[in-house]
Amino acid sequence: MTPEIDFDVAYPSLRPPMMGRNAVATSQPLAAQAGMRMLQLGGNAVDAAVASAMALTVLEPTGCGIGSDAFAIVWDGKQLHGLNASGRSPAGWTPDYFAGRESMPQLGWDAVTVPGAVSAWVALAEKFGRLPLTTLAQPAIEYARDGFPVSPLIGRLWARGVERLHDQPGFSACFAPQGRAPAIGEIFRNPDQARTLALIAETRGEAFYRGELAEKIAAFSAEHGAALTREDLARHQPEWVETLARPFAGGSVHELPPNGQGIATLMALGMLEKLGVGSQPPDAVETLHLSIEAMKLALADLDQHIADPESMLVEARHLLSDEYLAARAALIDRQQASEFRYGAPRQGGTVYLSSADADGMMVSFIQSNYMGFGSGVVIPGTGISMQNRGHGFVLEPGHANCVAPNKRPLHTIIPAFALDSDGQPLLSFGLMGGPMQAQGHLQLALRIMLYRQNPQAAVDAPRWRVIGGRRVAVESTFDRNTLAALRAMGHQIEVEDPLLGYNFGGAQVIQRHPQGHYVAASESRKDGQALVF
Fold this sequence. Notes:
By secondary structure, this protein is α+β, with helices and mostly antiparallel strands. It has helices at about 30-40, 45-60, 115-130, 135, 140-145, 150-165, 170-175, 190-205, 205-210, 210-225, 230-235, 260-275, 285-305, 315-320, 320-330, 435-450, 455-460, 480-490; strands at about 20, 25, 70-75, 80-85, 150, 185-190, 240, 245-250, 250-255, 350-355, 360-370, 380, 385, 415-420, 425-430, 465-470, 470-475, 490-495, 505-510, 520, 530. The radius of gyration is 22 Å and the shape is globular.
């Protein structure tokens, strides 16, 4: 049974929730239009999601590119399907390869793992889509070939990226062809990327992993003495997986299993239920304190235990067991902030989008370079910017997430989904922002599922972000008295401007209304846009 939605709750915003039988919510208005265009052509929610995702590689290169990774959760009308399209490390990435380093590189070829986003587009379209990939790619191709106006937020992030990455291989030729970042409002064209997108669509991704584009990627890697080879690219396969779930607020929240961080959201929600959260309003000091403490415990376990499942020493199901979560919840002091270590359970720069159609299909999709433009490496003549997901590994011997050949790193990007008490779709949701994502999922689930806030109110509400130890960043829109009370409990509160970058994420939500249509919300702090019809 789908719960009623409270439309009276609101936070400072000029944006109402959007309602319709079909919906697309993305981080960029032109990308939302690309998805809506597919629905109007007779496509479904998956077609809309893939078209929007491909368009975002053009429109928002500060967060994703053709060389990104991607994940998705799809409700096909009857059940959920999870997709892990993250890439693995090159075969040459042994611990000895990084000998002498204190941490994994952030930039350059030695931060690049095999990109998986292209395989996600193909897998989704082939399994669920109605329209050919060549049709889905058309808006992205047009934006790249004919140009698009650079929006204010992306323009600012682009300028930062050029300052930081201008000397990385191939970067300036692609993203600063005039020796500078494009100005806000300037029309930017990327004809190389248009040709690449067309080739990917025509070959259904084969050119990227085993054909012409793979040859160019491997050749540029070899030119710079890097480890990534054509064989590494050819080995890549996306993986269909079952979601992890945790009962919550009369329904259930679903996340993808590791190597992503979504399990931290489920763990924190489980702890909060053990603590009886919900007796106080969502913005009450007690609710915020317990939520922050539960998240700190979950993140401590995440950092220690979560990695490529093939390398984990602890099974995900044990981290989600009632016994373990009750024990972790018992460590929380209701009156005082604490610092936590990981537990030992008993053994046994991103873009997010959501879409839904009138036939009941819903999609939660995310793709990312990781840090802004990613590694800074761009393959000449292709417009392919390579992510820096290799930085997600650690170099600590024996750690579950220690770098190794053909291994997936711990990932920050996670899509989320929720079902109601009858096992029917309730919510497709997610947000951008690296380590903010699991924390943002927790806050959105609390507000929408437990407190029945409408999606736009939940998106507009002020957010917090655990930094480490007792340090907690909060948006400047929080009530000052609330922050004073949290400081008195020992939280080291750091106030940040929500309009500066993606420090608190950029959320998109589509909720199914009890009468069967959708309520869509997008991030009012950023350039997000929800479209319906």
